[in-house]
Design a protein that fits this description.
Elements (H helix, E strand, L loop, with lengths): L5 E5 L8 H4 L3 E3 L2 E4 L2 E4 L6 H9 L6 E3 L3 H13 L4 E6 L7 H15 L6 E6 L5 H15 L4 H12 L2 E7 L3 H6 L4 H10 L1 E8 L2 E9 L1 H15 L7 E4 L3 H15 L5 E4 L2 H7 L3 E7 L7 E2 L1
Parallel strand pairs: 1-2, 1-6, 6-7, 11-12
Antiparallel strand pairs: 3-4, 3-5, 7-14, 8-9, 8-13, 9-10, 11-13
């Protein structure tokens, strides 16, 4: 049976493989360029394959925003297929113009008269990865359970106003090359064997602490996350290609929070272009910081 609301997102949401098909979600894949070759994320290359390419390259990959024409094409498809209402949930607008391109595409279709009676809601997630992948899946479930679009938008408002991402890089090499941390700071960190714990909230990254040694690294990360997370709320975990460390990390955080993650996935190419492959991440629901943007 056709769902009363159609959902669109971008590949930066890092949904586990096959989940977009299971829940009938349209995913627009980001283009990522590495060594002068352009790949469509999740289409031309898997995340694991892309990290292997990164590990063997001296270049820094670059992501291209999803363009206005691509959004126009997708929205026209929805119109042609008789959709009445569409919710489009996109990557944080501070890190990509993708959200603004979607707004421009909507405006163009309104001005040309093509949009007609289609209700098109475009949401700035204000976050990355499963920070909007998980609530997207929950939104689909809510619609299927009979909740209204207004109720779903209110749920998204609450989640995106609270979502907090924490990154634990095991190597500073890629961050130094990408400029995410200064070369001097990276060199000093490597020299002293320090690893940073980084928060990524509303598109702003902050180094919370620098720690020496894996045990202390995990202990400090667990303390920070426990203090940030709202009790009895779900948390999410991700890794790139550091599986062994990831299992120790996931076990430690699960013990600290008293429950396992509700969703796990690979950290995709979009975040990986800035962090590199030597990283794990988790996402929690923290304190409310105010309303989101949606049209």
């Amino acid at each position: 049976m056709k769902r009363k609301v159609r959902f669109i997102t971008d590949s930066g949401c890092d949904l586990p493989e096959g989940m977009e098909i299971q829940y009938g979600i349209d995913v627009l894949n980001f283009e990522v360029m590495l060594d002068d070759v352009v790949y469509h994320e999740r289409e031309d290359v898997t995340t694991k394959e892309f990290y292997a390419l990164m590990n063997n390259s001296s270049s820094i990959p670059v992501t291209n925003q999803i363009t206005v024409p691509r959004f126009e094409e997708k929205f026209r498809q929805c119109i042609a297929e008789g959709e009445k209402e569409v919710i489009t949930i996109l990557i944080n607008s501070k890190g990509s113009n993708t959200y603004f391109n979607a707004l421009k595409a909507k405006e163009n279709l309104e001005q040309s008269g093509e949009l007609g009676g289609l209700k098109l809601h475009i949401v700035d997630s204000r976050t990355y990865s499963l920070g909007y992948g998980y609530p997207l899946i929950e939104s689909v479930k809510k619609i299927d359970a009979g909740q209204s679009v207004e109720q779903v938008l209110a749920y998204l408002d609450d989640w995106f106003s609270c979502a907090e991402v924490y990154l634990l890089p095991l190597s500073l090499r890629h961050m130094k090359k990408s400029g995410r941390i200064t070369a001097a700071a990276a060199f000093l960190g490597e020299l002293m064997g320090l690893r940073p714990i980084i928060s990524l909230i509303d598109g702003v990254s902050v180094v919370l602490k620098k720690v020496r040694g894996e045990k202390a690294f995990l202990e400090e990360a667990a303390k920070i996350v426990e203090a940030a997370a709202t009790p009895e709320t779900p948390w999410l975990s991700l890794c790139a290609d550091e599986r062994d460390f990831y299992y120790r990390f996931a076990m430690k955080i699960s013990k600290q929070l008293g429950k396992p993650p509700v969703m796990e996935s690979y950290l995709g190419c979009v975040v990986g272009t800035n962090t590199g492959p030597k990283v794990v991440a988790l996402i929690v629901k923290g304190k409310n910081r105010g309303a989101m943007k949606y049209e």
